[in-house]
Amino acid sequence: MTTHKMPPSLAFVAMLKPGAVLALAILTSCVPVTGTTPTALSTETPTILPTGTPTSLPTETPTPLPTGTPTSLPTETPTPLPTGTPTALPTETPTALPTEIPTAGAIVVILEPAPFTLYVSIIPAAVENRVQISVKASTALSGAPQAQVFQDGSTPVLVALTYESSTGLYTGMVDLDPSLPLAGTVIVTAQDTASHTVEMFTNFGLAKVLAGEDNIVFSNDGLVELYLPAGSLSNDAYVSFTQNGAETGALPGGLTILSGPHTIQASPGVTLNNTIGLTLRCLDIGGTLSTAQIYRWDAATEQWIPLESNVLQDHGEVSTAIGTFGTYAVLAKR
Fold first, then answer.
1. Distance between CA 314 and CA 119 in Å, rounded?
2. How far, CA to CA in Å, does 209 sit from each of 126, 143, 215, 315?
3. CB 123 within 8 A of CB 131
4. Are 330 and 251 in contact (CB under 8 A)?
5. Which pLDDT value is given to residue 246?
6. Is 309 helix (H, G, I), strand (E, B) or coil?
7. What's the Rg (C-alpha) of the chain?
8. Is 200 in contact with 170 (CB distance < 8 Å)?
9. Is the Cβ–Cβ distance between 282 and 242 less than 8 Å?
10. Separation CA 256–CA 274 (nearest Å)
11. How far apart are alpha carbons 17 and 237 in whole angstroms?
12. Which residues have C-beta within 8 Å of that of residue 213, sequence separation ≥ 6?
């Protein structure tokens, strides 16, 4: 068999014509003879395809996506929101309000004493469930005061008051509803000759006491407690409690009042056969309770009389024994 060598120029021409397949086959069979043509074809084809395709695709795609996305989103969003919002709101609002309001209020509030004083007491009458309203003024009045009784749980009752020249008192009677508590408030309005008007509010309470039994009774506000042993009263009676119910004089020098004055009165004609226990409750103001004593107002001498007292500082109570009804108060050193 004879082997033919084909020049390189003729081989490229053959690839452009219909016999290109045959010419390529001839070139392939001639590789071991010449060694020139097959070396160039096999070297260029595998080097370009595998190196370019895998190197560019995996390197460019994964690297920019994971790195750029998580870094920018969490850093920019949370930082401006929590820092800007809470700092502006709480700082501006509370600072302006408390500074302006109390300053204006402290300038305009002025306390002045009343032009005159009213003393109001509620005294049990001889008729059951009836009380006497007694009013005294520290100055001359232009007319009889107006009194209203508000019994707990009922509508107010207007009480007509008349002047008694022998005592200087304005008095009137009112019947209480026995189905309701025998306690309430009395409001008295009066005008002096100079057209000054004063209104006085006084709480009252009545307690029924049986002479043959031990009794513990309290004022309506709980500040006064009486212990009446059996036989201490001359007869069954009602006992009344009124605060600031009697006109009293100046306090002894260096003393201040911690509780009262409290006026304690019984039904007409009822007296004490022996001493009873009196307890007055008060606040310990500035540690003065340790020096406290109960004093009784003596209208005949117009003096406060000290009584031997027992102080329960932890309970805010001062106790003593009394032998008569009247007006009592807790006084202590300032």
1. 32
2. 14, 37, 6, 26
3. yes
4. no
5. 85
6. coil
7. 55
8. no
9. no
10. 30
11. 148
12. 230
Place of tokens 């009395």: 186
Judge contact between 282 and 289, C-beta under 8 A: yes
Q: Are 145 and 190 in contact (CB under 8 A)?
A: yes
Token pair in block for residue 171: 């008095």
Q: Could you give the CA distance from residue 75 to residue 97 in angstroms, rounded to a whole number?
A: 37
- Rounded Cα–Cα distance for residues 159 and 156 (Å): 10
Number of other CB atoms surrounding residue 216 within 10 Å: 12
Query: How many angstroms separate the CA atoms of 138 and 145, rounded?
Result: 13
**Type of residue numbered 177:** D
Question: Across the beta sheet with 169-175, what order do the strands follow?
Answer: 118-124, 130-137, 169-175, 162-164
Residues 6+ apart with CB under 8 A from 10: none
Backbone angles phi, psi at 26, to 5 degrees: -65, -40
How far is the CA of 17 from the CAs of 125, 168, 329, in angstroms? 148, 152, 139
Report the alpha-carbon distance of residue 6 to residue 17 in Å, rounded: 16
Residue 8, SS3 per DSSP: helix
pLDDT (0 to 100) of residue 245: 82
Per the listing, tokens 């020049």 go with: 7
CA dist 251 and 86 (Å) reads 58
Q: In the chain, what are the helix, strand and coil shares in percent, each to the nearest 5? A: 30, 35, 35
Instruction: Tell me which residue of 135, 145, 158, 126 sits closest to 268, measured CA to CA.
Output: 126
Q: Which residues of 90-125 are buried (b: 16+ CB within 10 A; e: fewer)?
A: eeeeeeeeeeeeeeeeeeeeeeeeeebebbbbbbbb
Low-confidence ranges of the chain (pLDDT < 70): 1-109, 286
DSSP characters for 39-92?
HHHHHHHHHHHHHHHHHHHHHHTTTHHHHHHHHHHHHHTTTHHHHHHHHHHHHH
| pLDDT for res 32 | 44
Residue 28 is predicted with a pLDDT of: 37
Residue 24 CA to its chain's centroid (Å)? 105
